[in-house]
Amino acid sequence: MDYKQFVEEQITAIRRAVGDGLAINALSGGVDSSVLTVLGHRALGERLKTVFVDSALMRQGESQNVVKSFARIGIPVELIDARVEFLTALRGLTDPEEKRNAVTSTFYQKVFADLVRETGAKFLLHGTILTDIEETVAGIKRQHNILAQLGIDPEKEYGYQVLEPLAALRKDGVREVARLLEMPPEMCQRIPFPGPALATRIVGEVTEERLATVRRATAIVEEELGDSGAFQYMAVLLADKATGIRDGRREFGQIVVVRCLDSVDARTATAVELPWEKLHRICEQITAIEGVNRCLYDLTPKPPATIEYV
Ligand code: XMP
């Protein structure tokens, strides 16, 4: 693909669609939505309002980091606190698709619909990529940002139109576009992070307490594997528990899984052969988290596994 031409075409298409109206987009801190934000601002300038929705599902320090790094390239990002809405929608849910649906509908029916009403924007720019569409259509997983492909008409249902400028690209293509847009490495070389965020890394119910555990474990894994060169790495909190010993007493504790994968485009992936010493260091820190007494390293490739657990 000629990415330079792709970028020009998308900028023209966004301008043509939005006309002299307003658009909004939500940054998740992941590569796709970051690239979309920069592309959208090239096309629309101040007529694109970018928000970062604090869904309570984000990584440690994520909102501040994202707002700061975009401020450095001249793109203002507004922080929206929707923690209560998301936690309420997820309360009591354990089924993976129900959890994904709860995140999707809170985003689109509640948070974005309110924003659209408040700002008068008629368009929502979306960072959907081809892999999201393919896997949703194939019924593997409902990616949070897929609407039209599932027969949902956002204009009818939510009152705004959705534009998906990256829908022809896979992850490697998104990175090419990032390079062309001269995005700083801390933005485009970030590992992928899913829109439904830490909710995809908690098997079972998503509660504030369980989020705090997986958030802490994620920070440890990201710190330790930041120089691994891997495609993606993460911590996952399982719903099962295991017996262990803490301070000389029996403890029925939580289990955290560590995953570190090589991949080009997230369609297939293989576990990285990490040094034993590195794994030990991660295990030691993760089992120091309150209530966690087991840390496992997941060797399963995709397929048969997917990258995320939910
Ligand atoms: P899976 O788990 O399907 O993940 O093998 C493939 C890639 O997509 C990311 N992912 C998502 N990204 N919304 C996103 O924006 C989602 O709902 C979603 N689910 C998974 C995942 O992190 C991996 O890079």
Structural summary, described in words:
This protein is α/β, with parallel strands linked by helices and 310 residues long. It contains 11 helices and 9 strands. The protein has a 5-stranded parallel β-sheet, sandwiched between helices. Strands 6, 7, 8 and 9 form a 4-stranded mixed β-sheet that branches. Helix 1 packs across helix 8 and helix 4 runs antiparallel to helix 5. The site of xanthosine-5'-monophosphate has 17 residues, from helix 6.
Q: What's the tally of helices?
A: 11
Low-pLDDT regions? none
The H-and-E topology, N to C, reads as HEHEHEHHEHHEHHHEEEHE
SS content category: alpha/beta
Task: Report how far the terminal alpha carbons are from each other.
Answer: 32 Å
Per DSSP E runs of 2 or more residues, the count of β-strands stands at: 9
Tell me roughly what share of residues is in helical segments: 40-55%
> So what's the overall shape?
globular
Taking all Cα atoms into account, the compactness measure Rg is 20 Å
Bound molecules: xanthosine-5'-monophosphate
The strands making up the biggest β-sheet line up spatially as: 3-2-1-4-5
Sheet bearing the most strands, described? 5 strands, parallel
Estimate the strand proportion. 15-25%
Mean of residue pLDDT values: 93
